[in-house]
Amino acid sequence: MTPALDQWLSSCARSSGTLGCAMQLPGQAPVIRIFNDRFPPASLAEAMACLAESAQLIYGHGLLPRWFTWHFELGQLRAVLRADGALFLILAQADSTAERTLEVLTQELLDLG
Questions:
Q1: Other Cβ atoms within 10 Å of 77 Cβ, number
Q2: Architecture of domain 3-111
Q3: pTM summary value
Q4: Confidence class for position 113, pLDDT limits 50, 70, 90
Q5: Which residue blocks in the chain are alpha helix, DSSP H?
Q6: Is residue 14 helix, strand or coil?
Q7: What is the C-alpha to C-alpha distance for residues 29 and 81, in angstroms, rounded to an integer?
Q8: How many whole angstroms separate alpha carbon 72 and alpha carbon 76?
């Protein structure tokens, strides 16, 4: 992972309500950061693997979204797909700073070169 991406991933923890986040570059193991004991790293790793497969299926049908967001009673899970193949996940608690800044975080990640 590049220093810029690693620093950006670390900054996600600064948003109140971030429960966890993960980044996976093509051909590399995911980097997972958990900030709440209720969400074990293995669960976020499994979600990342499933979402990576789902993204490939969607791309295979000609749809090219840059992100997906799932809303749950506890918050939101956002998956961001970059043109370089990087996949990012963030799990944000409902009604938190992290949830309110998902758009900003998404754009920051997409703008990183």
A1: 20
A2: 2-Layer Sandwich (3.30)
A3: 0.83
A4: low
A5: 3-11, 41-60, 97-100, 102-111
A6: helix
A7: 16
A8: 6
